[in-house]
Amino acid sequence: MTDTIAPIVEQLFLDLHKNPELSNQEFETTKKLRTCLEQANIRILELGAKTGVIAEIGSGSPVVALRADIDALPIDEQSDCQYRSTKQGIMHACGHDLHTSVLMGAAYLLKANEQQLKGTVRFLFQPAEENFSGALHFIEIGALNGVDAIFGMHNNPNLTINQMASRAGPFSANVDRIEITVKGIGAHAARPESGIDPIVIGAQIVNAIQTISSRTISGLDPVVVSITKFLGGNTWNVIPEIVEMEGTVRTLTPDIRLKVKQQLTNIVENIAFSMGAEAELRWFDGPPSIINVAKWVDFCQNIAKQEGYEVVDFQPQLGGEDFAHYLHHVPGAFINLGSQSPYALHHPKFLVNRNMIMPAANYLANLAQLGLIELAKH
Ligand SMILES: [Zn+2]
Ligand SMILES: [Zn+2]
């Protein structure tokens, strides 16, 4: 069976890589996925997704969901592979073309074995992971209705193609964005005493923020606060009235996230106040951290071993992944499989080892099939 499915999946991968589409604009990708599913007689759920597809195999409960993301990035591909992107400035530099093909492979494999399924497998071909809006959209339209467990996979270029990694508990970071405005009083640069200088105050805030991770949170809890934009003034001899800053906060747990938010607010408001200025912190929640369920991580690791993968340790990352939203509603696990790229994710030369595709498809198909049996036990 794998022999007939492999060329179809390979073709899909090459096609997606050549024709990447940005978040929420995956219209052609969606059409291709629908065609692939229809050709295999896999039923599509019409839940009103703007882009992306949701499909199902089998019947009744329990229900296991498998999720792949389908969007690309605004990066100009610099690899010299024969199937490089044909769209200037857009590239599958995170391997979502790979995830999509692997999930389609799993769907075809499971379809060929549909009579044996002890429930339903739902496939979420999710748009817009890169801007963290796709999972929320899918949850909103009911993609998780009736789902008992969910699994997701991201490729990991640092692992070889026979390696699998995951961990119980936090897997990715809470990815929050901040904006800070410091409002002082403008003045002549030669007479700072007649104004309130927001640049000096802003600089103090930037420095003080760095004490959050080093002085107020345990060294065992990873925290990153980065100010990535600092704007103020427009000439050399005038003290401006306002400084605007932007940045990001990365944490792993809900508790630490809250503590950092409170401490950040204290620092911003009180430093400004102590120097006669006003300051405001605006906090924008991004995707929460993935919190993997231990039981399902064990399950994924055991099947990986049976399939011949080497299971390796995984340190939580401070990057974000919107799969986290699903785990707030349904238990499950997010895992990494090796793609063995010499370049990192989001690098213009990122290139996966395609030999990982069919083993990964087999693995996901088994996760779903055995996941249904596991769920039926309880
Ligand atoms: Zn990415
Ligand atoms: Zn990604």
TrEMBL record:
<feature type="binding site">
    <location>
        <position position="154"/>
    </location>
    <ligand>
        <name>Mn(2+)</name>
    </ligand>
</feature>
<dbReference type="InterPro" id="IPR011650">
    <property type="entry name" value="Peptidase_M20_dimer"/>
</dbReference>
<dbReference type="GO" id="GO:0046872">
    <property type="term" value="F:metal ion binding"/>
</dbReference>
<dbReference type="InterPro" id="IPR002933">
    <property type="entry name" value="Peptidase_M20"/>
</dbReference>
<dbReference type="InterPro" id="IPR017439">
    <property type="entry name" value="Amidohydrolase"/>
</dbReference>
<dbReference type="InterPro" id="IPR036264">
    <property type="entry name" value="Bact_exopeptidase_dim_dom"/>
</dbReference>
<feature type="binding site">
    <location>
        <position position="130"/>
    </location>
    <ligand>
        <name>Mn(2+)</name>
    </ligand>
</feature>
<keyword id="KW-0479">Metal-binding</keyword>
<keyword id="KW-0378">Hydrolase</keyword>
<feature type="binding site">
    <location>
        <position position="94"/>
    </location>
    <ligand>
        <name>Mn(2+)</name>
    </ligand>
</feature>
<feature type="domain" description="Peptidase M20 dimerisation">
    <location>
        <begin position="177"/>
        <end position="272"/>
    </location>
</feature>
<dbReference type="GO" id="GO:0050118">
    <property type="term" value="F:N-acetyldiaminopimelate deacetylase activity"/>
</dbReference>
<protein>
    <submittedName>
        <fullName>Amidohydrolase</fullName>
    </submittedName>
</protein>
<feature type="binding site">
    <location>
        <position position="346"/>
    </location>
    <ligand>
        <name>Mn(2+)</name>
    </ligand>
</feature>
<dbReference type="Pfam" id="PF01546">
    <property type="entry name" value="Peptidase_M20"/>
</dbReference>
<keyword id="KW-0464">Manganese</keyword>
<dbReference type="GO" id="GO:0019877">
    <property type="term" value="P:diaminopimelate biosynthetic process"/>
</dbReference>
<dbReference type="Pfam" id="PF07687">
    <property type="entry name" value="M20_dimer"/>
</dbReference>
<feature type="binding site">
    <location>
        <position position="96"/>
    </location>
    <ligand>
        <name>Mn(2+)</name>
    </ligand>
</feature>
